UniProtKB/TrEMBL annotation, chain A:
<keyword id="KW-1003">Cell membrane</keyword>
<dbReference type="GO" id="GO:0005886">
    <property type="term" value="C:plasma membrane"/>
</dbReference>
<comment type="similarity">
    <text>Belongs to the ABC transporter superfamily.</text>
</comment>
<feature type="domain" description="ABC transporter">
    <location>
        <begin position="6"/>
        <end position="251"/>
    </location>
</feature>
<dbReference type="InterPro" id="IPR003439">
    <property type="entry name" value="ABC_transporter-like_ATP-bd"/>
</dbReference>
<dbReference type="InterPro" id="IPR027417">
    <property type="entry name" value="P-loop_NTPase"/>
</dbReference>
<dbReference type="InterPro" id="IPR013563">
    <property type="entry name" value="Oligopep_ABC_C"/>
</dbReference>
<protein>
    <submittedName>
        <fullName>Peptide/nickel transport system ATP-binding protein</fullName>
    </submittedName>
</protein>
<dbReference type="InterPro" id="IPR050388">
    <property type="entry name" value="ABC_Ni/Peptide_Import"/>
</dbReference>
TrEMBL record, chain B:
<dbReference type="GO" id="GO:0005886">
    <property type="term" value="C:plasma membrane"/>
</dbReference>
<feature type="transmembrane region" description="Helical">
    <location>
        <begin position="282"/>
        <end position="305"/>
    </location>
</feature>
<feature type="transmembrane region" description="Helical">
    <location>
        <begin position="133"/>
        <end position="159"/>
    </location>
</feature>
<keyword id="KW-0813">Transport</keyword>
<keyword id="KW-0472">Membrane</keyword>
<keyword id="KW-1133">Transmembrane helix</keyword>
<feature type="transmembrane region" description="Helical">
    <location>
        <begin position="12"/>
        <end position="29"/>
    </location>
</feature>
<dbReference type="Pfam" id="PF19300">
    <property type="entry name" value="BPD_transp_1_N"/>
</dbReference>
<feature type="domain" description="ABC transmembrane type-1">
    <location>
        <begin position="94"/>
        <end position="302"/>
    </location>
</feature>
Length: 320, 315
């Protein structure tokens, strides 16, 4: 088997500030193969957005985090922040905030193309129009001169997707790309991302807090909790036979659209652990129904089936 | 179109109000303004002639209307001190002050933009700390102290520039040599304020998701700052530059006095001292009109900076 397109190997990430450190990611291992689509699920604060930005190599604000472990992209180690060579680009969460309000759409869409490769004005216009057409923006030629404020939320996210495609990435990161959009628009934007991925043979890492979105959309699901990947497996298996108590709890709180049974939504009691301390045992233990005394120490990584791993003391499986 | 009209009406109202206030100035003096100017030994005939010449018996709105009538014909009255037409006095001094102001603001911007960018890129870094210390040093130094310090170093110590005075543009070299010190004084003082403001706005902009997105698409820091971050960060700076240009008639009094520059500030100061009402009235109204015009200009620049402001104005 060839090396995966993206490989995170024991990646830990820490923000150091005057008020102390935040241990956001703890020894995360995750791989995305060429052309594969992976869903990354977790609640707010689980570290999934930080993970995406680490892969992308940018962080907001002037404080750079300290990283240990490795980020391999196309087999190259890019942990030290070296250039991604446009292999990866990202669709951001809130299209209203992630498009520059004072720059015309046409210019923003081509941002990822280095000036040296852009060619004549006519060629740039053609390239930008083509990108906007690919994401289904109506009247793309005229939209080049529009500003983001002149578009609807869904149209803005289409522009955001077009800007991500401009670099012709082999891996597309999508960080909750539909959270800021109307429910009716969400499905269409996700469908668009799926179509573009298949057409262009890109790999996709789709980040969401909503497990229900991933059914039928991704090959695999990785579940994150408090900066760790606690379960990773084929989408159908994870949804049908979740092995980690946290995955089960997440599935239980995912609303279903079936009219038969609509009980009040259960909640997962408790909250995320304090990220200022490194986690010693299983971070989910305080909220877990099946917590054991062993959970105070780091749980083993178990193989629960083909391509299905889980990190839990209470789960059944063969140690990896 | 309608906003343009309302804006014009508003501007005219401000100018009319200012005009009436200005015309009330002589009446605010205790006692008879004619006596105050001519002295107690003036004959009743002299006093009456003075009162009639300045139309002092009329109410401020009437005086303003009278003044406006003259102004549209290019007649702003005659100076009580020199006897020359006020238009001639102003015509001589206005270009000097305008040149000083424009050069001062341009210098301030030329210093501000690169320094603020460099500081905002690494807040707390070496460049940021040095520029912060220098900015506060300048902010806490009054313009006249800075001016004298510059004279001491560049004119007295190194003796490369004239300490004070002015040379007409007929002699370009001398003209520029006389321009340097007053422009430096104005530009540095203004830059100290602008750097602080633009730096803070740039830091806020650099933390926005759209800058993060642009960075992730591989824009170089240089292109990021100039083509993506500067425009959305420049509102306060543009406002301050506009205020500086509009209000500097008053502000340039200090600089013009230190460097003996024959501009509007000096004209205003000496006219106030001599109670030369026609000159005072003309200077005050002219600076009022300038403030209003620059304010309108700044509003238009907002629209250029941010398309959203343009839309808000159009609806």
């Amino acid at each position: 088997m060839s090396a995966p397109l993206l490989e995170l190997d024991g990646l830990s990430l820490r923000f150091d500030g005057p008020a102390g450190s935040l241990h956001v990611l703890e020894s995360v291992s995750l791989a995305v193969a060429e052309g594969e689509s992976v869903g990354l699920v977790g609640e707010s604060g689980s570290g999934k957005s930080v993970l995406a930005r680490a892969v992308l190599g940018v962080h907001p604000g002037p404080a750079a985090p300290s990283l240990t472990g490795r980020i391999l992209l196309e087999g190259r180690d890019v942990t030290d922040g070296s250039s991604r060579r446009r292999a990866v680009s990202m669709v951001f969460q809130d299209p209203s905030a992630s498009l520059n309000p004072v720059v015309r759409i046409g210019r923003q869409v081509l941002e990822a193309v280095p000036p040296a490769e852009r060619g004549s004005r006519a060629r740039q216009r053609a390239a930008a129009t083509e990108l906007l057409r690919a994401v289904g923006l109506p009247d793309p030629g005229r939209r080049l001169r529009s500003y983001p404020a002149e578009l609807s939320g869904g149209q803005r996210q289409r522009v955001g997707i077009a800007a991500a495609l401009a670099a012709q990435p082999r891996l597309l990161l999508a960080d909750e790309p539909t959270t800021a959009l109307d429910v009716t628009v969400q499905q269409r934007v996700l469908d668009l991302i799926g179509e573009l991925r298949r057409e262009r043979g890109m790999a996709l890492l789709l980040i969401t807090h909503d497990l229900g979105l991933l059914a039928g959309r991704t090959d695999r699901i990785a579940v994150m909790y408090a900066g760790r990947v606690v379960e990773d497996g084929p989408t159908e298996r994870v949804l049908a036979e979740p092995r980690h108590p946290y995955t089960r709890a997440l599935l239980a709180v995912t609303p279903r659209l079936s009219p038969r049974r609509r009980p009040p939504l259960p909640q997962i009691p408790g909250g995320l652990p304090d990220l200022r301390e490194p986690r010693t045992g299983c971070p989910f233990a305080p909220r877990c129904e099946r917590a054991l005394p062993e959970c105070a120490t780091r749980p083993p990584l178990l193989r629960a089936g083909a391509g299905h791993t889980v990190s839990c003391w209470a789960a059944e499986g063969v140690p990896v | 179109m309608r906003t343009l009209l309302t804006r014009a009406v508003r501007a005219l109202a401000v100018i009319a109000l200012l005009g009436m206030l200005t015309m009330a100035l002589p009446l605010l003096l205790t006692g008879d303004p004619a006596v105050a100017v001519l002295g107690v030994e003036a004959t009743p005939e002299q006093l009456a002639a003075f009162t009639a010449a300045l139309n002092l018996d009329a109410s401020p709105p009437e005086r303003f209307a009278h003044w406006l009538g003259g102004a549209v014909r290019g007649d702003l009255g005659t100076s009580l001190v020199t006897g020359a037409p006020v238009t001639a006095e102003i015509g001589e001094r206005l270009p000097v002050t305008l040149e000083l102001l424009l050069c001062g603001q341009l210098l301030a911007l030329a210093i501000t933009v690169p320094v603020a960018m460099r500081s905002a890129w690494r807040p707390g870094g070496v460049v940021d700390r040095i520029s912060t210390v220098l900015a506060y040093l300048l902010l806490s130094t009054p313009a006249f102290v800075l001016g004298l310090a510059l004279i001491l170093v560049l004119a007295v110590g190194l003796a490369v520039l004239p300490a004070t005075g002015w040379a007409a543009p007929d002699d370009p070299v001398e003209h520029l040599r006389h321009l340097v010190l007053p422009v430096l004084t104005m530009g540095l003082t203004e830059a100290a304020v602008l750097v602080r403001v633009l730096r803070a706005d740039l830091i806020a902009t650099l933390r926005t998701p759209y800058i993060l997105a642009a960075r992730s698409r591989g824009l170089s820091p240089w292109r990021l700052l100039w083509t993506r971050a500067l425009r959305p960060s420049s509102f306060s700076t543009v406002t301050l530059v506009g205020l500086g240009l509009g209000l500097a008639f008053g502000g340039s009094v200090l600089v013009e006095t230190i460097f003996a520059v024959p501009g509007m500030g000096r004209l205003a100061a000496s006219a106030i001292e001599a109670r030369d009402f026609p000159v005072i009235e003309a200077v005050v109204l002219l600076s009022g009109v300038t403030v209003v015009l620059v304010g309108t200009l700044v509003d238009l620049v907002y629209g250029v900076i941010d398309p959203r402001a343009r839309h808000a104005a159009a609806h």
